[in-house]
């Protein structure tokens, strides 16, 4: 919803939610349920991730293990080999990168390579994962994965027989069964515990109890687990400076099996479902027990993280649609989005192409469910969801921009740097200002004086005229950038490959900063990564704000001292 006061701190980034944020899905896997294999090659994955950023994604969620129904668990070393080159390349381009993993060794390595968010499908039920994130500054996503309804019980028909013979026979059967159970006990023991005994709850520092995984009872393994330690991920990907610890692999093995077993059960339930003639009074199951399990788990895990030392503003929650839940249960959970948003944490809607979306839309192929996904996401946004995790980031960005422009009036402040050193420099700058004022949903609120500056970077050219224009706009940053590029083209700016990147130009428009926006990618970086070294930007900004150097330092931008900057101001050329 508009003007949501929540913020999400993710390492060096801080995301505000004055508008919904888009998380693009990047599966570096051969077997994901809707796009398996499309981005398995690291170079293809990096290219696609950058394309999603340039199309409007705010976050890229990189995963190296498919968790679709019936998935095969992936060794942490193999998972690290898949994801680390992609994480490193995207982070280098200024992207906010989320690592989608349940293995603590992979999470550690990804954060070292630049990831800002750990998205744990097991909801941080592994104490080692909690121990890691409490010592970092990354954002965390707590997801619920598990069945939310108790299994149906079948009732056998009982035939009463009150005869003495029947009573004696029943007692004999009970005694025989008890003797059989006693005889089995020694064989059922393994490592000093009965197989049926519940796993003791782990304790975190400070005495906080870590709940068991919410996946129900695991299925028996078909093959004995290997006792051999997993090779270090540093050997599998030496160039990525990662060495997942063997103990992390061992700790994750049980959760791997439990999650895989839960998803296998989920797949079998879908395959085994057949319509019946049994009548029901209601179209959906009762929401109360379902939401008690989902919201209870998310609340408990968030509190456990806070008690362990993770600050509240780093935590995001996700109800985990599709993970052990039927279509009816997923719809119930989505309809209760407002209740989950009321918990006070940033809330994710991760329904993209899920089975229940296909069920309600009648679309069988997962890759064809994007339009229906957008509809479900819109309902979640209206009820308070802050982040949408989607496969089609470009399509959803268009969808959201159209909806938001009409439904949510939201003017935001931004600064545009203007420069020219060809033709009538000051006239070019004034023409650009007038054209900016004609951009839809945009107005010019203030302008600096026009200054003359030394050329920067490419010094063998004429001096520049420079100014900064303050605007208010309701456009998304990438949409605004496209409008600025149209103005450059109309005023004769040559951006072809034959033109020097920092050479002479009739007009140059740079989007420097926009209120509440952080963005990475090839097309646009916000804040502009070179603000802090450009004297011809910082001096005009002094006409529009008090102490711009301090302002940008507070926003995480490194600002150089005046003597260390480029493009020094040498004089004034007049007012706009």
UniProtKB/TrEMBL annotation:
Keywords: ATP-binding, Folate biosynthesis, Kinase, Magnesium, Metal-binding, Multifunctional enzyme, Nucleotide-binding, Transferase. Residues 177-258 are annotated as: Disordered. GO terms for biological process: folic acid biosynthetic process; tetrahydrofolate biosynthetic process. GO terms for cellular component: cytosol. PANTHER family: FOLATE SYNTHESIS PROTEINS (PTHR20941), FOLIC ACID SYNTHESIS PROTEIN FOL1 (PTHR20941:SF1). It catalyses: (7,8-dihydropterin-6-yl)methyl diphosphate + 4-aminobenzoate = 7,8-dihydropteroate + diphosphate; 6-hydroxymethyl-7,8-dihydropterin + ATP = (7,8-dihydropterin-6-yl)methyl diphosphate + AMP + H(+). Its cofactor is Mg(2+). In the C-terminal section; belongs to the DHPS family. Belongs to the DHPS family. It comes from the Bacteria. Pathway: Cofactor biosynthesis; tetrahydrofolate biosynthesis; 7,8-dihydrofolate from 2-amino-4-hydroxy-6-hydroxymethyl-7,8-dihydropteridine diphosphate and 4-aminobenzoate: step 1/2; Cofactor biosynthesis; tetrahydrofolate biosynthesis; 2-amino-4-hydroxy-6-hydroxymethyl-7,8-dihydropteridine diphosphate from 7,8-dihydroneopterin triphosphate: step 4/4. It comes from Collinsella aerofaciens. It is an enzyme of class 2 (transferase). Gene3D superfamilies: 7,8-Dihydro-6-hydroxymethylpterin-pyrophosphokinase HPPK, Dihydropteroate synthase-like. This is Dihydropteroate synthase. GO terms for molecular function: 2-amino-4-hydroxy-6-hydroxymethyldihydropteridine diphosphokinase activity; ATP binding; dihydropteroate synthase activity; kinase activity; metal ion binding. Residues 177-186 have a biased composition (Basic and acidic residues). Its EC number is 2.5.1.15. Residues 218-258 have a biased composition (Low complexity). Residues 20-401 form the Pterin-binding domain.
